[in-house]
Amino acid sequence: MEQFQHISPADTKTRLDNNEIKVVDIRDEQSFALGRIPGAYHLTNASMTKFVQDSDVNVPVVVCCYHGISSQQAAQYIIHQGFKEVYSMDGGFEAWRANYPFDSGEEK
């Protein structure tokens, strides 16, 4: 795959529940701390190198942002780092929050 794909929050939830994907959240630190998809990795410019080094490129990655716009550029960047299957979640965290449980409070 040389291009990221789009994924709905519903499909993200199903695949997350089945432990088939890794979710990364590119929102700012405060927004991430206040609410995030369960198990999401906070991906920032500072944590990108560690994420790439520590991750299995064969595990599908779903990128989440606020509304599903910024995640598209980040997903394309991640695919160019050698990951085989990368998605941008349509509607972002706002769409997730409207429909599914999320973790809140201090970053784990």
Automatic annotation (TrEMBL):
It catalyses: thiosulfate + hydrogen cyanide = thiocyanate + sulfite + 2 H(+); thiosulfate + [thioredoxin]-dithiol = [thioredoxin]-disulfide + hydrogen sulfide + sulfite + 2 H(+). The keyword Secreted does not apply. GO terms for molecular function: thiosulfate-cyanide sulfurtransferase activity. It is found in: Cytoplasm. Keywords: Cytoplasm, Transferase. Coiled coil: none annotated. Residues 17-104 form the Rhodanese domain. The keyword Protease does not apply. Transferase that catalyzes the transfer of sulfur from thiosulfate to thiophilic acceptors such as cyanide or dithiols. May function in a CysM-independent thiosulfate assimilation pathway by catalyzing the conversion of thiosulfate to sulfite, which can then be used for L-cysteine biosynthesis. NCBIfam families: PRK00162.1. This is Thiosulfate sulfurtransferase GlpE. It comes from Glaciecola siphonariae. The lineage of its organism: Bacteria, Pseudomonadati, Pseudomonadota, Gammaproteobacteria, Alteromonadales.
